[in-house]
Specification:
The complex is a heterodimer of chains A (177) and B (465).
Chain A (H helix, E strand, L loop, with lengths): L1 H29 L3 H5 L2 E13 L7 E11 L1 H10 L13 E12 L9 E13 L6 E15 L2 E11 L14
Parallel strand pairs in A: 1-6
Antiparallel strand pairs in A: 1-2, 3-4, 4-5, 5-6
Chain B lengths: L8 H14 L2 E3 L6 H12 L4 E5 L8 E7 L2 E7 L5 E5 L14 E3 L2 E3 L6 E3 L4 E3 L3 H4 L15 E5 L2 E5 L7 H5 L3 H9 L5 E12 L3 H8 L6 H4 L1 H6 L4 H4 L8 E7 L2 E7 L11 H7 L7 H9 E8 L3 E9 L8 E13 L2 E11 L4 H14 L7 H16 L2 H4 L3 E3 L21 E3 L6 H14 L19
Antiparallel strand pairs in B: 1-19, 2-11, 3-4, 3-6, 4-5, 7-8, 8-9, 10-11, 12-18, 13-14, 13-20, 14-15, 15-16, 16-17, 17-18
Helix pairs in contact in B: 1-15, 5-11
Classes of the chains: A alpha+beta (177), B alpha+beta (465).
Chain lengths: 177, 465
Amino acid sequence: MLAERESQLEALLVEREVEQFLYEEAELLDNRELHEWFDHVADDVNYRMPRRLMRENTSSVFSEQGYYFNEDYGSLKARVERFDSEYAWAERPPTRTRRYVTNVRVTRETEDLTEDELFVESNLLVYLSRGDSDEHTFYSARREDVLRRRGDTFEIADREIRLDQTVLSTDNVSIFL
Amino acid sequence: MAAGDKPSATERALQDARDSLDEGFFPLEFFHDEDLHDLEMERIIGQSWVFIGHESEIPEPGDYARRYIGDDTFIFVRDESGEVNLLFDSCRHRGAQVCRAEQGNTSHFRCPYHGWTYKNDGEAAGIPQKSKAFKNLDRSEYGLAHVPRLESYEGLVFASLAEEGPSLDEWLGDFKWYFDVHMKLPEGGMEVIGEPHRWVIDANWKTIADNFNGDSYHTAWAHGSVLDLELGGEETVGHAGTGDSLDRHIHCDGHTTSMRGFEGEDVFLTYPDEVVEDLFTREGLSDAQWQLARQALSFTGAIFPNFGFLHFGDTTDDPEKDVAPFFTIRKWRPLGPDQMELWSWGLAPKNAPEEFKQRMYKMYTANFGPTGNFEQDDVPIWKGITDSASGQFASSQNLQLNYQMGLEWMSEMDIDEEWLGPGFAYSENLEEGGMRLFHEQWYEMLAGNDRTDATGTPINLQEDR
């Protein structure tokens, strides 16, 4: 009985750690501290956002060939560094974003994972606003992450972003999700 | 303008536009005008050949994808006999839409309202209670409506809402000579990878048309971040007018392409040697077309009115990785005076190794499409032009945009007399003739006239073609 309570407590603490990490990550991205964010990216990362399809009789189908992002460490780093350029007009001035991370769930018992990795599902709502316009828009997505323990924090080893839109309603995607 | 119509304020303004164009001006207000938008839909989109999709997107019988011409929704579908159709998505009974997915595979489309059912070639196959309720209705007259004209060129399917007019072959004219180089270079041709990217942006469609009709001047500035990061060789982004490479702006039968290349060199858009050796074929290409492909580093271009393409070599997604080419085609679908939907496809040689096709698609998404390192920076700029055009100031002050680059009083601009292809080529890329050509055709069609080429000759009506 006590052992069961202890393991539940352990799970709760892990969930809490994961949530704190995702909230802190969201804050780095909202503050456009992209290099600090990129410090949490594993060097074997697979970061992808497949294109959602609206096929017959299904609600959540994603393209196997078409994607918005399909990044490895080097290409993600290049995207981050591009925003250092004074010519990266899409983010001059920067998009104002506010990320809401919810429905966080942690599964430790997935086959492909090593002992220090966690499979994490979460929902993400991002509010975006640009320039001095009163217009705003949202991205809504579900994320599936593999987070790997690194010291007292985590690194993102794998991320799949599953947007809810089939047709994007933004000029471009110049932020990371 | 049709005789008897009372000219609107917009039409009166258009009468002055012709004079402006001759001076190399175009009024800013034309990038945001409700009346003009309606006229554009009727007289340009409604009278032109509009791109629908590539046949490789619907390879099997029953494969379909929803596609649009202006505000109209169609089903792009391969029927059981293998023929490609474009069916108006509206039941012949009460008009409800019979296809509600973006894509799929089906032998029949069924109306959700009363159950009228159509085969995938459009033929009406089933009408519930027909013998009692519609006993004298001739089913053969109640199939889904086909678009008036549908034609294909090298797998690229275009449709026209106009019952009559030039054929697709006549519309493309000699510009096919250039597009053949892209589509026929690899044995087996090109195919589409994945599904097109689609995104809605608050910008007038003519802004992107301008960009694809030869805006070499913007590249180094608007895409300076790509240069800073060395995500493409210097030559790919490059500064217009340096003269270090073979930079040509080509005008041909109402369409344009810009190229960058290197005289006498084997560049082949930086396709890897194994693809060039195993797949690239001179079959179907003339010696001159082969020479163009051999020397080319990159192409940009546009087919009037709303189709664009980029075929770039020497690009990468990571400065540490080798460069590779990408090939993308796109369509800008006007949704209103201040809004369009962009559609963008990535292509690769059909018979190339799978790994290389993936790499090409990766180069495409890294550079273009909504997340592309190039494209991210273009779109907000076009939105800004549309915003500037939308208020009182542009029209009350009669602000004219300047497209004079390359006109004789602005610079020395030579025609390349030795040019190896049809149409004519400017011997450098610091000129804006492609945009003027676009606006001239825009004007003529809007005014109800025939399109004209850059020399003022009507296109598609030339007797000797």
